[in-house]
Amino acid sequence: MAAKPSLLLYIHGFNSSSQSHKANVIFDYCQQQRPDIKVIRPQLPSFPQQAAEYLKSIVEQYQDEYQIGLVGSSLGGYLSTWLNNQFGFKAVVVNPAVKPFELLVGYLGEQTNPYTHETYTLEHKHIDELKALEVKELKQPLDFWLLQQTEDEVLDFQQAVDKYQGGKQTVEQGGDHSFIDFERYPQQILSFLEL
Question: Are the C-beta atoms of 78 and 98 separated by less than 8 Å?
């Protein structure tokens, strides 16, 4: 039986976009070097439950036909971990949010996505939706590669180092939440994801 074609699902973070820098780096690399890989960069709904359901619907549409690998940044890393728990896909998580339900309490109220200019209201029920997606323990730590920079100004990097124990980890001193010089990694990411 022939191997399935490859699909990379890039999952962006909170108030980010399918057109964010890292999403574009991955997309451009695949277009130039690996045009055989289908890259999907969905623009996620702003609310956690809707985002999770949307991602699940994408997976269910493609999983029979494609070998799927995940790349998730920040909140996208949290959602990638949830998808791994549901479906078992390998995932590269970049400066992932480990406890976004704690972090986003500080963002309750009106929000505007700087990329899409969508305005919406983050409510307590959305924090509960995030909690419901938590994966307390990784089923297969070796499915994960953590790419983490220690000077992340948004998240406590140590939470991610602890969470993804047992998986592959690249922890770089310095950097920031955007993960500086992400351009170094697409080829290695595709290798790790076996795409």
Answer: yes
Q: How far is CA 80 from the centre of its chain?
A: 5
Tokens representing 114?
């700087």
Sign of CA dihedral 125, 126, 128, 133: positive
At 4, give phi and psi (nearest 5°).
-70, 150
- Our measurement of the distance from residue 14's CA atom to the centroid of its chain's CA atoms, rounded to an integer in Å, reads 10
* Distance, CA of 113 to CA of 118 (rounded, Å): 5
CA 132 to chain centre: 17
Summary count for the chain: helices (H), strands (E): 7, 8
Report CA dihedral (108, 47, 101, 96) to the nearest 10 degrees.
-120
Q: What's residue 3's pLDDT?
A: 85
Smallest Cα–Cα separation from 25: which of 14, 13, 41, 36? 41
- Within the chain, residue ranges assigned H as helices are 21-33, 48-62, 75-87, 100-103, 124-132, 157-163, 186-193
Q: What is the pLDDT of residues 55-110, one digit of tens each?
A: 999 999 999 999 999 999 999 999 999 999 999 999 999 999 999 999 999 999 99
